[in-house]
Amino acid sequence: MHDDHVLVERRLRRLLAERIRPAVHSATSALTVHVWHAPGEPVPFTEAAAAAYAPAAAGDRWGAPWGTAWWRITGEVPADWAGREVEALVDLGFDADRPGFQCEGLAYALDGQIVKGLHPRSGHLPVARPARGGEPVGFLVEAAANPLIGLPWGRTDLGDRATAGAEPLYRLGRIELAVFERQVWELVQDLEVLSQLMAELSPHDARRFEILRAIERSLDATDLSDVPGSAGAAREQLADVLTRPAHASAHRISAVGHAHIDTAWLWPLRETVRKVARTTANVTALLAEHDDFRYAMSQAQQLAWMKEHQPQLYARISEHIAAGRFVPVGGMWVESDTNLPGGESLARQLVHGKRFYADEFGIDTQEVWLPDSFGYSAALPQLIRLAGARWFLTQKLSWNQTNRFPHHTFDWEGVDGSRVFTHFPPVDTYNSELSAAELAHAARNFAEKGRATHSLVPFGWGDGGGGPTREMIARARRTADLEGSPRVTMRSPAEFFRAAEAEYPHPPVWAGELYLEFHRGTYTSQARTKRGNRRSEHLLREAELWAGTAAVAGLAEYPYDALDRLWKTVLLHQFHDILPGSSIAWVHQEAEQTYARVCAELEGIVDGALRALAGPGGTPVLFNAAPHARDGLPALGAALAPGSRPAKGETDPPVTAVAGEDGIVLDNGVLRVTVGRTGLISSLVDLRVGREVVPDGLAANLVQLHPDVPHAWDAWEIDSYYRNTAAELPAEEVRLEAATPDECRVRVVRRFGGSEMVQRLRLAAGRGALDIDTDVSWHESEKILKLAFPVDVLADHSSSEIQYGHVKRPTHTNTSWDAARFEVCAHRWLHVGEPGYGVALLNDATYGHEVSRVRDRQGRTATMVRVSLLRAARFPDPGTDQGAHSFRHVLLPGAGIADAVRDGYHLNLPVRRVVGGRAVAPLVAVDHDGVVVEAVKLADDRSGDVVVRLYEAHGGQAAARLTVAVPYATARLADLLENPVGDAPPSHGGPEVSRVDLRLRPFQILTIRLSR
Question: Is residue 636, in this structure, part of any structural domain at all?
């Protein structure tokens, strides 16, 4: 027989579009619609129900950006529809192709009961199944006019809260009652699944022609003048091909219902609360209808919002959780970025997420679920294990620009050697529709073919698109055991992981960070948000330390509630589109205000604790929250300031400053720094070893401005070609601003475009470091500002601080993997060195760095370290980073890793001065410089126990002794959630513990719980 597949497929497309799909709703009846436009921010149902409504009709314009309209929909089921299945169809003005990025609605019954969400792919509301005829119909629909913000690169001002009063965005579509013809709907699902499968089969596959003929027979059996009446006969023609079982070797897919909801992105936090409500209302409605459906929801914060804002819906969710069908996953407070948060922040993400699930639902989540974060820190496997989790899931690595990640199921090994079983779904999306094309791609793409057979597919519309739909569930059922298709089973993530782990007990190992070769600009975008996070993290450390020390001494109450609330606020803002700087203006403006409030409250907690500890008196008391001693101050303690402090010149050689033809030369007997007339450091000599740090013919403190127009995704991206063009910014003013025996300071001013940069280069007496303070008034567009330091060391790798340790990265570009890592993340420091000598660059709030090789005037290889200060992306916030910024960097010649670790903490935890009358002994102390105390706090269970978290920071094994100022009855190792685990470490001090012996492996984290 001749090949007529093209004709049959065209016939199918036309009949589906023009006759069969429209017949899913065979009869309609008008509904009466009234509207109330809520002024300002969203209001609760009770207020909306009592409002005065005006008549409305299809075609009416509504919805200024970020506004809310409430629609009252009333009517009556026609009497002659008795016995039929009836739905209300509500079109708020949807664009069917953009679910999650436009208007959305939440429908209530008139008595306030939540019905379900309304979205472009789920615009129906249940009315009767079956109808009696004549029953009243009534709904109140809260409709959000979220603007359609251009993706992925269009400039838009709609992301600013100030646009709320603009012109309406939407036109109301049809709102009517309709008879739902279930058999026609089922026929549509049959035809769609088979036609999609047919398109994925080889042209030479006999199965393809069998499906084609079955579809043809089904269309022949469809009476186009009575589609509902003939739907059953049409389906019978498809039964044979739909019931043929899959091959025994077919790939196995665990289909997990999901709705990836960004906690903020192209909408503010307050809108996310409503997106979660609309989506979970949809999901709980589906769960009530489909016993085999499972839905996984990450981000404890989002469920906490439902508990606070939608208790009715939360109760419904909780019932399904108890039945094991609505499945909390992830174990983190939000789907956090994992590059930028500090170590204790990542630990607390897991602590607060897992504790919420345990306290609310009695669930111990076993997986960390981060499909969309922008690369994954090598510290994460250890933290996952210490939180009591077993598995990790991500999707984002499929976005790599240069190198294809080689595995989909593997063991991921962290910086300390911990391993976690990891899956990277080969379907390459976390918003699957369960289309045949996606299922076939998952099977073809699976890297472990021949060794494993299982992969996971998250399905559902995300970001407020409504999550899974009834159509997706229908596809899952039809592909559960279908010849030519992977076998699809709806199940939970834990069920998938257990099956995958059982069949693949010895997977390949990937060691080190999971670097995303994409979205590298997120290390730099929105500098104020990043500074707010960094400052908040260190203030939380100080607040816990000093409040805990004061509480143990009986001098003050520990602020459990305040610290819990503040931690959750900071953790919320570490979501992977807030802290990375890839949200709209509204989000970042609000974040700046929130960080200001957080920091002010934490400063109050710290100040109160310090005053309690210092006691009455008139003597200055100096407090050191850093984990290393400095300038006579104990780590984690306080000392009285000397009564009469000798002048610097009496203890250290005074700093001198000499201006000459080559510029200004600063000298403190440790370093000699020459600042040229262009503001560049032409020479930096380490006088301790007689070594020039600046390569011959090059200069440091080089300020460079590059065009920054990524190929797409402005705030997210830095593309390598930005380096093709650079403007070096000379100084307009270089002068000696201050010169005392204690410190000399050079002021350097640069002006460019509409911007100004003022630097102060400071050299203090006796200090082997150059401090560089940089203030920028930034008014550029699509530019990136870099600060560069070439150093005369031949380094084959750089070392960058990450959470609880550091990672080494090549400085060369031998492979495509090396070349793709051209912008990297470092926390408080980055170090380059050769045997016997190194240089560290410290910072107080910058993360993006670049390390490369350069040649000096004599052609010798040296190392270039550049830090990214500011960007000026257009999308999604066209005002990104405009305005004033301050940065502090420290150039530390002659530094080893230990120096970088110590001074990085010192920079970020400055000494505090309080007037009082007593020194404060550290609550805990460690006798090993490489064992760093990261947190000292009282236990979250309010028992009064002290919790100490520490880690090995230098990358080698360490034996250390922890000394406790107040003896305790027991000292136990604990997990991140402060539950005792394993054997008690050796302790000393008689009947009470005052000393604990510890042995740590490289980068190992230990949590010690001290109980009275």
Answer: no
**Side-chain-facing half-sphere of 386: CA atoms under 13 Å:** 31
Q: Are 932 and 898 in contact (CB under 8 A)?
A: no
Nearest to 543 by CA among 604, 592, 594, 596: 604
Full domain range(s) for residue 118? 31-180
pLDDT of residue 1: 53
**The tokens of 482 are what?**
């279908």
Kindly state whether residues 87 and 139 are assigned to the same domain. yes
Among 676, 259, 314, residue whose Cα is nearest residue 433: 259
Copy the structure tokens of residue 932: 């760093």
Query: Which segments within 187-282 are labelled E, that is strand?
Result: 252-257
Phi, psi of 624 (to 5 degrees): -120, 105
**Both 14 and 63 in a single domain?**
no
For tokens 């143990």, name the residue: 552
Q: What share of the chain is helix, strand, coil (3-state, %, to 5)?
A: 30, 30, 40
180, 205, 229: which is the final residue of a domain? 180
Q: In what order do the strands lie in the sheet with 970-974?
A: 931-938, 946-952, 1005-1011, 970-974
Catalytic positions are 372
Q: Which residues pair with 2 in a beta bridge?
A: none
pLDDT of residue 164: 72
Same domain for 532 and 432: no
In DSSP notation, 447-483 reads TTBTTB-EEEEEESB-TTS-BS-HHHHHHHHHTTT-T
Does residue 804 come out as left (phi exceeding 0), alpha (psi in the -120 to 50 range) or beta?
left
The pLDDT of residue 650 is 55
Rounded-to-integer distance, Cα 818 and Cα 27, Å = 63
- Measured CA angle at 96 (ends 95, 100), to 5 deg: 80
Q: Is the pLDDT of residue 101 over 50?
A: yes
Residue in this structure with the two tokens 């409030």, named with its chain if needed: 597
Question: Alpha-carbon distance 234 to 191, whole Å?
Answer: 10
Round to whole Å and give the CA distance between 670 and 769: 9
Q: Are residues 691 and 570 in the same domain?
A: no
Gyration radius of the chain's alpha carbons: 32
The CA distance from 140 to 109, in Å, is 6
Point out the domain boundary residue: 485, 518, 551. Answer: 518
Beta carbons within 8 Å of 903's beta carbon, 6+ residues apart: 769, 829, 840, 842, 890, 892, 895
Measured CA distances, 881 to 523, 582, 729, 781, 918 (Å): 13, 12, 19, 10, 44
* Domain count of the fold of the chain: 6
Same domain, 207 and 93: no
The CA distance from 580 to 960, in Å, is 36
Band (pLDDT 50/70/90 cuts) for residue 4 is confident
The residue assigned the tokens 């793709």 is 820
Q: Give the tens place of pLDDT for each residue, 503-513.
A: 999 999 999 99
* 985 HSE (CA, 13 A, CB side): 22
Work out the pLDDT band at 154, boundaries 50, 70, 90. low
From CA 893, how far away is CA 687, in angstroms rounded?
10
What is Dmax (Cα atoms) for the chain?
Answer: 106
Residue 100 belongs to domain with CATH number: 2.60.120
> How far is the C-alpha of 157 from the C-alpha of 136, rounded, in Å?
44
Question: What's the pLDDT at 647?
Answer: 44
Shared domain check, 565 and 454: no
CATH number at residue 824: 2.70.98.30
- 111 inside domain: yes
Average pLDDT, the chain: 96
> Please, are residues 748 and 761 in contact by the beta-carbon 8 Å criterion?
yes
CB 241 within 8 A of CB 216: no
- The answer to whether residues 1011 and 984 touch, using CB atoms and an 8 Å cutoff, is no
Can you tell me the mean pLDDT for 291-314? 98
Edge-to-edge, what's the strand order for the sheet holding 783-791?
Answer: 727-728, 702-707, 783-791, 861-871, 848-855, 824-825
Claim to verify: residue 981 and residue 899 sit in the same structural domain: no
CB 475 within 8 A of CB 240: no
Q: 């012996």: which residue's tokens?
A: 997
